[in-house]
């Protein structure tokens, strides 16, 4: 896993390169949210052309992409048309039409990561089956089709029981907890019923949530970013601390599990591996994202190669960059929508105003046209000499008195 850095060869022919030595390739990204936006920002630094496919006019990536094509990443025709203009296709969201990607691959279109990877990841149940087969430690899980099977699962795994929707989940929308057998029906209804396609997981008694970003090049070389701690608020990633404050043994186990999980998937790019650390030092895999991830936003300021640059390097076939940290510590704080509409914007602007006064703080605002409660609107990254100092600075950012801080 700690693959040697810098030993890879560029495998492209000389005439594939532009005058500055970087490949003349158009990277097509399915999805134009904040991840697409930050990918475009990294691309512009290296003059790599990124075009994005997203149905929303004014989507976060539209202002920074080489071009924004308006269309749906779940629509066969839109993807096929889009693909004609790209040398390589990649994703910033896993909920894309995997059938179309598979079809395109058969016709020789280059998709990174591969359609098979997207297909496995976008169905969380299939994902769990896949990783279990590859010997990755996971919370126990089983499919449920009706109240009977849900009750049986409850007896087997105990309560609280985590009920999850197989598809289209993000930010915890798709998760529901039943604290007792009596709560099963309402927890299932909250997810839209059994027809939605549900499964259950044994509740993981974690003491910390960790995450590892793993990068894989087209030559299958693998590099891992430092293990981070993710802190969730109501199922949504809220704070990320890098590096995670855990023992060397836990760091190494988390990195090994993450590498092993990603080695079982096909294609190039960065992947995020979300993990649970239990009280007895076990590492269990929660889920994998086949793309840059919220737990890797800190890398923009804190690592030699950001996850976004790394993803581009990987998909176009450049050597992977150094994933190690260039600052001793980093904290990422998500700016989540506090309120609908104008009030929400005012609260966010107040926080940004404070962040701008804090040493080592960088503000990212995704420019989403609408504010919604709990929506990821932006983030602030703090870098500095120690985690203790950064925690104090985060407290300053979040305390009301800090408005007077100069
Ligand atoms: P995202 O894709 O935004 O990370 P998601 O909607 O796919 O989120 P999950 O990652 O499955 O949702 O779960 C969200 C959070 O819920 C986890 O980060 C964790 O805090 C909690 N959680 C999920 N599964 C379990 C489990 N089996 N036991 C205990 N807590 C869990
Ligand atoms: Mg998820
Ligand atoms: Mg998750």
UniProtKB/TrEMBL annotation:
Which intervals hold domain ATP-grasp? 128-316
GO MF annotation list: ATP binding; metal ion binding; phosphoribosylaminoimidazole carboxylase activity
Instruction: Name the UniProt key words of this record, in alphabetical order.
Output: ATP-binding, Decarboxylase, Lyase, Nucleotide-binding, Purine biosynthesis
State the superkingdom: Eukaryota
Pathway as given in its UniProt record: Purine metabolism; IMP biosynthesis via de novo pathway; 5-amino-1-(5-phospho-D-ribosyl)imidazole-4-carboxylate from 5-amino-1-(5-phospho-D-ribosyl)imidazole (carboxylase route): step 1/1
State a GO cellular component annotated for this protein. chloroplast
Q: Which GO terms describe its biological process?
A: 'de novo' IMP biosynthetic process
This enzyme's EC code(s)? 4.1.1.21
What reaction gets catalysed by this protein? 5-amino-1-(5-phospho-D-ribosyl)imidazole-4-carboxylate + H(+) = 5-amino-1-(5-phospho-beta-D-ribosyl)imidazole + CO2
Task: State the similarity comment.
Answer: In the C-terminal section; belongs to the AIR carboxylase family. Class I subfamily.
- Recorded protein name is phosphoribosylaminoimidazole carboxylase
Interval of the full protein contained in this chain: 59 to 464 of 637
């Amino acid at each position: 896993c700690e693959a040697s850095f810098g030993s890879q060869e560029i495998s492209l022919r000389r005439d594939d390169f532009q005058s500055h030595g970087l490949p003349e390739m158009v990277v097509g990204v399915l999805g134009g949210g904040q991840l697409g936006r930050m990918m475009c920002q990294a691309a512009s630094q290296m003059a790599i052309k990124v075009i994005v496919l997203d149905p929303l006019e004014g989507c976060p990536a539209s202002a920074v992409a080489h071009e924004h094509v308006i269309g749906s990443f779940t629509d066969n025709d839109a993807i096929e048309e889009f693909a004609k203009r790209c040398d390589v296709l990649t994703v910033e969201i896993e909920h894309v039409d995997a059938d179309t990607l598979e079809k395109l691959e058969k016709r020789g279109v280059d998709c990174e990561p591969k359609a098979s990877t997207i297909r496995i990841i976008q169905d969380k149940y299939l994902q769990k089956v896949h990783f279990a087969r590859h010997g990755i430690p996971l919370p126990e899980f089983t499919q449920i089709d009706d109240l009977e099977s849900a009750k049986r699962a409850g007896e087997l795994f105990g309560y609280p029981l985590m009920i999850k929707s197989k598809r289209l989940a993000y930010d915890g929308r798709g998760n529901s907890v039943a604290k007792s057998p009596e709560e099963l029906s309402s927890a299932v209804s909250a997810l839209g019923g059994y027809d939605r396609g549900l499964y259950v997981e044994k509740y993981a008694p974690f003491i910390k949530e960790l995450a590892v970003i793993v990068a894989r090049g087209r030559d299958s070389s693998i590099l891992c970013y430092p293990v981070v701690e993710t802190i969730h608020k109501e199922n949504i990633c809220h704070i990320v601390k890098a590096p995670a404050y855990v023992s060397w043994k836990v760091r190494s186990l988390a990195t090994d599990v993450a590498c092993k999980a990603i080695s079982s998937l096909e294609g190039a790019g960065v992947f995020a591996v979300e993990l649970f650390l239990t009280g007895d030092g076990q590492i269990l895999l929660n889920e994998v994202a086949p793309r840059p991830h919220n737990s890797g936003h800190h890398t923009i300021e804190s690592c030699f190669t950001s996850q976004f640059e790394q993803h581009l390097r990987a998909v176009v076939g450049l050597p992977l960059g150094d994933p190690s940290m260039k600052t001793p510590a980093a904290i990422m704080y998500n700016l989540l929508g506090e309120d609908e509409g104008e009030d929400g914007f005012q609260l966010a602007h107040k926080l940004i105003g404070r962040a701008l006064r804090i040493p080592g703080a960088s503000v990212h605002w995704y420019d989403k046209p609408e504010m919604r409660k709990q929506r990821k609107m932006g983030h602030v990254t703090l870098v500095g000499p120690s985690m203790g100092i950064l925690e104090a600075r985060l407290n300053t950012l979040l305390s009301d008195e800090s408005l007077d801080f100069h």
